[in-house]
Write a structure and sequence with these properties.
Elements: H1 2-15, H2 19-34, H3 36-54, H4 60-72, H5 82-85, H6 92-98, H7 101-109, H8 114-122, H9 136-139, H10 143-168, H11 175-182, H12 187-195
Helix pairs in contact: 1-2, 1-4, 2-3, 3-4, 3-10, 4-8, 7-8, 8-10
Bound molecules: fe (ii) ion (2 copies).
Length: 208
């Protein structure tokens, strides 16, 4: 576990410099103490998002970047109580509270890395039930940067939903179809990632 954490710190330091890197590592450590399942999910999402991006580019900086954004995507759950995160049944009141986590994450990350913060804020916007409804921070960016952030956000969105099906759902039938149903905007990317066998239909964990 120590090795994993030093690997994570090294990856963060390639993207975020100086004290800000320590701040991000501290936030992740807090997430680990707050809710271990969310932390483990975040690490898996970071690792698999990096693999998914490798299907499009071999640029090391981008690969480090998406790993960093992937492990940070649910950092806003630090602002959601453990009781709500793990509530069964997960009713409308829980859903309403949980829907705040992308914006809480944005607030926690915006002074550490603006782009990682925007990816975190947008990771539930490429799906049927969108939240938050608007991402004003994206509008002020140059077109190319906006495109890269949206592309990374889409990868993390797909991997996030895939991980939830693999680890939380009892329905493992036709995962590709399930993902396309809930994320129609991402259809082309989902099909490509299955074709490249980065995402897989089998029930065996793809992370080992
Ligand atoms: Fe999330
Ligand atoms: Fe997530």
């Amino acid at each position: 576990m120590l090795n994993l954490e030093s690997e994570i710190s090294k990856s963060i330091e390639k993207v975020v410099k100086g004290k800000k890197a320590h701040k991000l590592s501290d936030l992740l450590e807090s997430l680990k103490n707050h809710d271990l399942d969310t932390y483990n999910h975040s690490i898996r999402v970071g690792e698999l998002s990096k693999k998914a991006l490798e299907a499009y580019t071999s640029k090391q900086f981008y690969l480090d970047y998406i790993f960093c954004a992937g492990i940070s995507h649910d950092i806003g759950k630090l602002g959601i109580s453990k009781e709500i995160i793990n509530a069964v049944p997960f009713d409308d009141r829980c859903r309403e509270i949980m829907d705040n986590h992308p914006e809480i994450g944005y607030q926690l990350l915006k002074d550490i890395d603006k782009e990682v913060a925007l990816i975190c804020e947008g990771h539930h916007t490429f799906q049927n039930r969108i939240y938050p409804a608007k991402l004003p921070g994206l509008n002020n960016l140059p077109t190319r940067k906006k495109y890269v952030i949206s592309f990374f956000t889409m990868i993390i969105t797909i991997v996030d939903a895939y991980d939830r099906i693999k680890y939380k759902s009892n329905n493992h039938n036709h995962i590709e179809g399930q993902l396309i149903d809930t994320h129609p905007q991402c259809k082309e990317m989902i099909q490509y990632l299955f074709k490249k066998e980065i995402l897989k239909e089998n029930k065996i964990s793809p992370y080992i």
